[in-house]
Amino acid sequence: MHPWNEAVLESLKKARQRLPHALLIHGPRGVGKLALAEQFAQLLLCEHADPLARPCGRCDACRWYLTGNHPDFRRIEPEALAKTPPVDAETEEGTEAPARRTKQPSIVITVEQVRALADFLNLRSHRGALRIALVHPAEDLYPNAANALLKGLEEPPPGAIFILVSHRPARLLPTVRSRCVAVPVPIPPADAALRWLASRGVQNAERWLAFAGGAPLQAVQYAQEAAGWERLLKSPQPVDDRESLERLAEALQKLAYDRAFLAFGLAPKYRTGTSASSPAKLRRLLAFARQMGENRQLTRHPLNPRLFSADMLASMVHLT
Ligand SMILES: [Zn+2]
Questions:
Q1: Distance from the alpha carbon of residue 154 to the mean position of ligand 1, in angstroms
Q2: Do 231 and 220 reside in the same domain of the chain?
Q3: Which residue has the higher pLDDT, 40 or 315?
Q4: Are residues 271 and 132 both part of a single domain?
Q5: Alpha carbon of 38 to ligand 1 centroid (Å)
Q6: How far is the CA of 8 from the centre of ligand 1 (A)?
Q7: Apex CA 183: angle with CA 178 and CA 185, to 5°?
Q8: CATH number of residue 16's parent domain
Q9: Deepest in the core among 153, 189, 224, 267, taking most CB within 10 A?
Q10: In 84-181, which residue ranges form alpha helices assigned H by DSSP?
Q11: How many Å lie between the centroid of ligand 1 and the Cα of residue 133?
Q12: Same domain membership, residue 232 and residue 197
């Protein structure tokens, strides 16, 4: 877990005696919500005699948890995000290259995954205590899956704890949201984030932390992909695949905001290296930035990336 989230973990520890059956840990992408949720799950499962020493990292429960084998813990997430991709049943042993997957891994949490979770939660706990389900990211619940989860949230089996993690809680079903106790995870103070980035040897940390809007884990990712982002910010080009489309929308959004900040006479928040636009274009620039924010979500829908990106770039040209 990341040092800046200690205070949130402490507040969760204090709430342990009257633990709600569902938590919604939410905040911007890249502030360490998942690591916090995992640490709290381990804390709840730890069997160390002294509650203050939990999670101890040494008891059976902790060891099972840390190796991904605790029988009372399940984590569900889109197949495409899973740490260990499911083994392709068609891959033959001894072949040189794994057989080509016939199906793309799912980018949503499916209703089957939630049903399997319900089966798990309805069993009695193996260790006589809690059963914990971690759902990440909760906004990726496919509509049927969200409805299936809602049933569990409305009538939770005894001892079941749901921990939902979300970057975009506004996209959850309001009925799901209202069943959970919200745990906000804010952007950490810049000095704490920079100390941590420095300890990891991240190059140009200040610049990428700004580009990440202050989210340290995002900053690490940007720094790793620095050359690609520099190129994209300097001369954005039409793209052919959806992942590049999402990045392009993000780059254009942040360029537009920085131009607007500069036109206002303010420091450019995202440090994209762009120059100011004429103040006369401010209103259109902000509308464009908002549109790009929406496009970052749209890019997961079926569309033609080349046409879509060319269209975004054409709108940007009028705003320089
Ligand atoms: Zn332990």
A1: 30
A2: no
A3: 40
A4: no
A5: 13
A6: 20
A7: 135
A8: 3.40.50.300
A9: 153
A10: 111-122, 143-154, 174-178
A11: 18
A12: no
Domains of the chain: total:
3
> Are residue 259 and residue 247 in the same domain, yes or no?
yes
For residue range 23-37, list pLDDT tens digits in order.
999 999 999 999 999
Q: Which residues pair with 75 in a beta bridge?
A: 134
Clarify whether residues 210 and 170 are in a common domain.
no
The H or E element containing residue 166 is strand 160-166
CA–CA dist 240, 43 (Å, integer): 45
| Together in a domain, 219 and 244 | no
Q: Answer yes or no: do 210 and 65 share one domain.
A: no
Ligand 1 mean position to 195 CA, how many Å? 29
**pLDDT at residue 79 tops 70:** yes
Range of the domain at 249: 225-317
Same domain, residue pair 20 and 99: yes
Residue 299 CA to residue 246 CA, distance in Å, equals: 6
Among 143, 153, 164, residue whose Cα is nearest residue 118: 153
Q: How do residues 231-274 score in pLDDT, each as one tens digit?
A: 999 999 999 988 899 999 999 999 999 999 998 899 999 999 99
Gap from CA of 49 to ligand 1 centroid (Å) = 9
Using the mean position of ligand 1's atoms as its centre, give its distance from the Cα of residue 282 in Å. Answer: 55
Give the global pTM. 0.86
* pLDDT band at residue 316 under the 50/70/90 scheme: confident
Task: Please tell me the distance between residue 59's alpha carbon and the centre of ligand 1 in angstroms.
Answer: 4
Determine the pLDDT at residue 53: 85
